[in-house]
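Subgroup meeting minutes
Present: P.N., E.W., G.H.
Scribe: E.W.

1. P.N. recapped why we're keeping a running log of single-chain structure predictions: easier to compare across weeks, and new members can see raw inputs and outputs side by side.
2. G.H. added today's entry (113 aa).
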Amino acid sequence: MLNKDQFIIEMTYHSCAIEGNSMTFEDTTKVYNNQGLNLYYNDREFNEIVNHFDAMELMLSYVNQKEVLSNRVIKDMHIELCKNILHDAGSFKSHDNYIQNTNVQTFNFSLLQ
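Output recorded in log:
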């Protein structure tokens, strides 16, 4: 069984890798442990890793407090994941998706408040 730190590192590395982040598992571990990196990663990739660590800590604190999943919790998690990356971190999407060359109706995000 993984301890808390191993869990956060594994989840962060794999979640970010799925999204295309090129940071290695070894470097992800170094960032978590506040050790220096030998390679340069762009600011977005570095922020994605650090933000994910923070979001995992927040999620675990919500779980320990038996916090009910709510819009506030979702927005708080989004803020942690997207700080220093998106200007509207913590906000619900305000525009609809559009799929070119189709007549597919997408979800109306303006219904979310």
